[in-house]
Design goal:
Blueprint: E1 2-3, E2 9-12, E3 15-21, E4 30-33, E5 41-45, E6 55-59, E7 67-75, E8 82-92, H1 97-100, E9 101-108, E10 119-121, E11 124-127, E12 130-138, E13 145-153, E14 159-170, E15 177-184, H2 193-204, E16 211-213, H3 230-233, H4 240-252, E17 255-264, E18 267-275, E19 281-286, H5 292-296, E20 307-309, E21 314-317, H6 327-334, E22 339-343, H7 349-359, E23 362-366, E24 372-375, E25 381-385, E26 390-397, E27 403-404, E28 408-409, H8 410-417
Parallel strand pairs: 15-16, 16-17, 21-22, 22-23
Antiparallel strand pairs: 1-4, 2-3, 4-7, 5-6, 6-14, 7-13, 8-12, 8-14, 9-10, 9-13, 11-12, 15-26, 17-18, 18-19, 20-21, 23-24, 24-25, 27-28
Amino acid sequence: MLALALGPALLRGEDLATVGQIDAGTPGWIASAQRDEIMPRCFVDAARHLTAEGSLAISGSGNPLEYGGWTRRVGGIVGGRYYKLTAHYQVASVPEERRQVVARLDWLDPAGNRVAQPDYAYETTEEGGWTCTVLNVPAPAGSTSVRIELLLGWAPAGTVWWDGISLEPSQPPPDRWVRMGTVSVHPRNEPDKLGSYIRELDAMAADKPDIVCLGEELLNAGGTVTYTSYASTAEPIPGPSTARLGEAARRHHMYLVAGLIERDGHALYNTAVLIDRHGKVQGKYHKIYLPREEVEGGLTPGSTCPVFDTDFGRIGLMICWDAEYIEPARALGYQGAEIILVPAAGGFLDLLKARALENHLYVVSSGYDVESAIIDPTAAVLFSTKAAPAHKVIPVNLSQRFTDSWMGDMRPRYHKEIRPDIYIPTPAPR
């Protein structure tokens, strides 16, 4: 390991309340790796910097095994207190930036032993040509110091430059309470199926939900549905049904998610629509995975998994058969969705739980032959029912951390370690 005698804007390890330039010649950052054979090239690059001193650079140097970088141990940590790490970086020739560029905090006891699992920074913003990543977490009980780790992994042709680095005491993030709601409505043989859902919304309005998930194919749902009837019940979005949903959303000042069959030119889609608190269509999602019956009914599958920012957080939408597969929920979680809302005619509660657990987010379903449910990021079912009519509103705090003693906080860890490069293997040459 090589001791480095200068660096960019850094905290003083002796005084966590002070963040600023360290004096030239003050030791602190160390280049390190688990083994010499995987050691990257670590150097100070005076030609590229955000601050005035130069940046901490890491290069793969042609080694496909490379994993390592810059570390610095900082004392004065108090267990239970929040600390905020801020780090800026630029990259060149790094194909999977989220996975291969790592900033994390490794918490240590007085003897230098790890006291809990490291915390990973994974959310980023762009600032003046640099990517900024911020991590605000509590120090685990028993920690008295922390090792800041700025790393590059498995990028033989890549280089990352780190600068604008600070660690400082901070405050816990503010609570972000959201009242999530679901309905269970089975309007068999009713002439106004959409009206049945709106009446249930009126009944639950006293619980003041922020967002409510309604069912799939609201105009088609029920015992008389035939897959050849899609064309006769499809309508544009915005259209008459979204106008009725919008009036209910505006009346109760809530977001709504509902399933409709959409006509767009010659195409028919199984669509989940998001209505905002003002009754406007904020966005829509076309069902990615169509079962055979819907294909034979003339529907066209969607091709994207959009996320939507609300006044309480980021959400994603899926529909019914999508829950059978990992990709839609994974795509939504990868884009930062905190809640996935799922209008569903049928399916399996266990699969909805799996999508919540593996992506570490909330899932809210409104079912017909599957449960209407609210599921937390640990796959705990907070509510579920197949009874109808029924509804439920549950408040959750989106700032709550779900940590495991063996794995740590899995939401950031999962999204840092995910391997999109191996999902579809490259065919071998013939």
